[in-house]
Each structure stands twice: as C-alpha cells, then as structure tokens.
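Support request from a user on the community tier.

User writes: "When I paste my structure tokens into the form, the page sometimes reloads and wipes my input. The last time it worked, I copied everything first. Here is what I submitted, just in case something in the input itself triggers the reload:"
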C-alpha cells in the first residue's frame, strides 16, 4: 500500500476497543490482550492481515538502587509475541527503513555526545537486556521530537536538543524513550496488531517460527509505515515511559523533575514544533503530579545535577551548523482523486482457508487468515494525516470463544463490540442470507468516512466456517456505495471456503 513514513496509520480494524480509531494501525486503546482465548479472537480487521505466535509475558523487576524501595516499584512489560532478541532484530530493520526516509544529521560531535549520554542513561534502565543495541541517530529537523524503535534504536531530533535548556531536560527526553524500549511498547503494539489480523494462526501456533514472525512483521511495517504501528503509544504507555524515565533520571543523578517539566514547557512554548511529538506521545493525565508521585517513591534525589558544560557546548555547536532542510508540504486530507471504476475482469485469490475473486485493478494485502482489498486511491489521507481505507473490502477469520456458539450469537457479539468502541457506527438493517449454499448474516451499517465531511456505508457479512467465523466487510462512501454494490456482490458470491 506504500504509506509514506510520516503517514500516521492505515485504517481499518473492526473490533471492540480499537474500533474508535477503526481505520488506524495506531493502537491507542488502554486494554491489554486477554490471556485466555479471545471472544471473536479478538478482532475484525481492515488492515494488512499479518502475524502472531506464542504469547510471552515478561515480568522483570528493578535492580536495587540506593534509597529505592524496590518492593514498591515493579516495571512489568506488557504482553508480547516477540522475544527481546526479536525486538532488537525488528528494531534494526525498522531503523534501516527510517534512515532511508528521514533526513539525518551526520555531525560527529553531536552524535558522540548524544550517544554517550544515551548509553549512560541506558545503564540505569530497568528490564535492560544484553540483546538491546542502544544506538542513537540524529534527525536533522527543527521539530521537537524523539522516538524509540524496539531493541534500543533511538532517534533524537535536532530541534529537541536546541529546545532543551539544560542537559537534564535532554536526558529526560532520552530516558523517556529508553522507557519505551525496556517496557517493549513497540513490539507490544505490533503483537496486538498481528493478533487482530490472524487470531486463528495464533490459536493453532502456526506462526511459532522466528523467521516467519519477523518477516511478516516487516511486511506490516513496510506496508503502512513504521510509525503507523511502532510509534503510536497509548496514554498508559506514555505514563509507563514517564515512570521509567523518572527512575532512570533519579538513578543516574539527574533532576528527575526535568523530563515532565520539559514536556510541559515545550508544549506551551513551541506548539507548532511539537505537533508530531504529542501526536505520537499522547499526554498522560496529570503528568507532573504523576512524576512527583514517582519521585516520592524513589526518595529525594541527592545532589541531582541539571546541566553540564558539554551540553551547552553542543548547543552552541549546533547553532553554527546549516539550518535543517525545509519539510515538503503535506498533502491536503482527502485530496486524492476518486478511484477508477472497478474492473469487470476478476482475478482469483487463493488462500489456505478460502478463495475469492476481485477486480484486477484492485490491490491486495494478505496473510494466512485475512485479506485487504482496495482500488487505487482507495486509501486516502485522513483529517489527521493518517492513511485510511475509504473504498474496498476486508476478510478476516475469527474464532469465537466457547463451544456451541451460533452464527447469530457470534455476529451479535461482534456488532456489540463494534458499537461499544465506535459510537458513530450504527446498524441500519440485518438480514439472513445465503452464500454459496451456506447460511450467512448480512448487516448494513452507517459510519463516518475518512473523506472529510462524508458518511460511508458498510456491509458486514458473516459465515460460519467450522470453528471459525468468516467476516467480510465492504465499504464505500454513501454516494458511491450503490455503484460499488455489484462488485461487492460478485466478490461475495465468488467466495469458496475450505469446509
């Protein structure tokens, strides 16, 4: 699909909690992934269907530190499909992708300074692992931003260094990003994304092989952009990174108040230059108060430093360098022209559990258990810059929980989750139907379109396939749905299932 790196997210999953941002790969829900078999397991997706394997739960405590009541502080990474070694490999490959798409500042003095500072902070990070690379890159941008990829690959914008008033503030930014690394927030979100898209493979352990997991993860990241999946944190993840960052600052001898103070200052002082940072890092509630509470647990910092001559020298050095390149003008939301009409000629998709036909001028993204189909320009730039699906179809294979479930009950469970998480979604009509001799349920729905000011029509069709629920969604703007309906019907009637 080729979403540019700075596109925020690809549209489209339909499940409970995440359907409020239902077209977005950016997972901002606060819930975790259930340990038991999921109800409708757990997602209906419209995103590229990929990856899943055996779940891992890392439960690691803090190394003792002078004055630290360790029994009161435990930093526990969330549910994850990946091992720490895989974190590092995924981070390395993702960093290579980022480096091709972002302007880097190749200044030896500044890079050496940031690397030394970063590695010194990483030495105090809880849950640190020998597999993590702790490599640092400078982005030649005046935007005040920084981000971390899995496995310790941290990018710091030039603008963040220039905006910091002292070393403690810059250390706070890097400590915060280090918190994302050791709490494994990036691969936690990738794991959830993959679980949404291929629950059956997770349930059967099909993707237990490391090469398959990493390979399909990169397919996801290449398809929609690294920051669509790895860099869209929830407020709970931001709060965790604040807690870990505060601990790192305290343990390494910096004023632990500096991190939250810096975030608060730049938000007010540089609103235009921090848009990307606060988009990628949603502000936790009561950030300053929460950090103060964390410091109280750690005890008052003894002789905490705020600045060094080295930091001020680097700031003066940066001021003498050529200014960052100007950013290209972003495309206007929804500016792409409408898709061409669906081709009358259909081509065949052969999957492991189902086959169907689709127009030969449409694009396809696939995995063992899901499929995303869309025409040229069917993915559009949304109002917030994210990439959303406005036209096309998705197919997902879901596993309802428990035995003896019925098609009606499973469909109602799915609809209930969808409506709870997306208040704009409304059911217009539900009917019983038949697809290739199989009983099916068809649900017509209305929802907000990613096209500015427009509504869309969605059609959900559910079919029982053994122990699984096969769910298809067809989508187009209201004004175009009737013209797409014959194509949607041809796709549906071409469907053949394995059992």
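"...and here is what came back when it finally went through:"
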């Amino acid at each position: 699909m080729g979403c540019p790196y700075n596109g925020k997210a690809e549209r489209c999953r339909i499940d409970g909690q995440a359907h409020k941002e239902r077209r977005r790969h950016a997972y901002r829900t606060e819930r975790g992934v259930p340990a038991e078999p999921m109800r409708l397991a757990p997602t209906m997706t419209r995103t590229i269907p990929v990856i899943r394997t055996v779940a891992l739960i890392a439960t690691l405590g803090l190394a003792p530190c002078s004055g630290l009541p360790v029994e009161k502080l435990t930093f526990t990474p969330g549910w994850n499909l990946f091992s720490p070694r895989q974190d590092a490999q995924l981070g390395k490959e993702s960093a290579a992708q980022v480096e091709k798409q972002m302007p880097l500042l190749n200044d030896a003095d500044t890079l050496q300074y940031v690397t030394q500072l970063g590695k010194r902070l990483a030495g105090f990070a809880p849950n640190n692992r020998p597999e993590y690379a702790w490599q640092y890159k400078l982005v030649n941008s005046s935007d005040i931003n920084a981000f971390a990829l899995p496995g310790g690959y941290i990018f710091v914008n030039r603008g963040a260094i220039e905006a910091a008033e002292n070393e403690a503030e810059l250390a706070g930014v890097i400590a915060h990003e280090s918190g994302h690394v050791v709490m494994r927030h990036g691969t936690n979100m990738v794991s959830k994304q993959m679980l949404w898209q291929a629950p059956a493979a997770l349930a059967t352990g099909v993707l237990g092989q490391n090469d398959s997991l990493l390979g399909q993860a990169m397919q996801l990241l290449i398809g929609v952009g690294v920051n669509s999946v790895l860099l869209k944190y929830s407020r709970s993840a931001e709060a965790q990174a604040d807690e870990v960052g505060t601990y790192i600052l305290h343990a390494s001898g910096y004023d632990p108040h500096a991190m939250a103070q810096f975030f608060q200052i730049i938000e007010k002082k540089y609103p235009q230059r921090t848009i990307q940072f606060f988009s990628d890092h949603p502000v936790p509630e009561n950030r300053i108060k929460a950090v103060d509470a964390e410091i109280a647990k750690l005890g008052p910092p003894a002789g905490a430093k705020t600045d060094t001559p080295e930091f001020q020298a680097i700031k003066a050095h940066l001021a003498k360098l050529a200014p960052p390149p100007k950013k290209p003008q972003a495309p206007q939301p929804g500016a792409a022209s409408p898709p061409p009409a669906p081709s009358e000629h259909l081509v065949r998709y052969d999957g492991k559990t189902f086959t169907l036909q689709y127009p030969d001028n449409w694009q396809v993204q696939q995995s063992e258990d899901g499929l995303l189909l869309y025409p040229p320009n069917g993915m559009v730039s949304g109002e917030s810059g994210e990439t959303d699906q406005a036209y096309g179809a998705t197919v997902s294979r879901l596993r309802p929980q428990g035995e003896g479930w019925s098609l009606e009950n499973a469909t109602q469970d799915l609809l209930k989750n969808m409506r709870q998480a997306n208040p704009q979604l409304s059911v217009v009509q539900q009917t019983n139907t038949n697809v290739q001799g199989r009983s099916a349920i068809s649900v017509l729905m209305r929802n907000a379109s990613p096209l500015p000011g427009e509504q869309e029509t969605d059609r959900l069709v559910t079919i029982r396939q053994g122990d699984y629920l096969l769910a298809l969604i067809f989508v187009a703007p209201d004004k175009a749905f009737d013209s797409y309906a014959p194509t949607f019907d041809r796709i549906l009637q071409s469907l053949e299932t394995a059992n």
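Agent notes: The reload is a front-end session timeout and is unrelated to the input. DSSP finds 15 helices and 19 strands in the chain. The chain has a mean pLDDT of 75. Escalated to web team.
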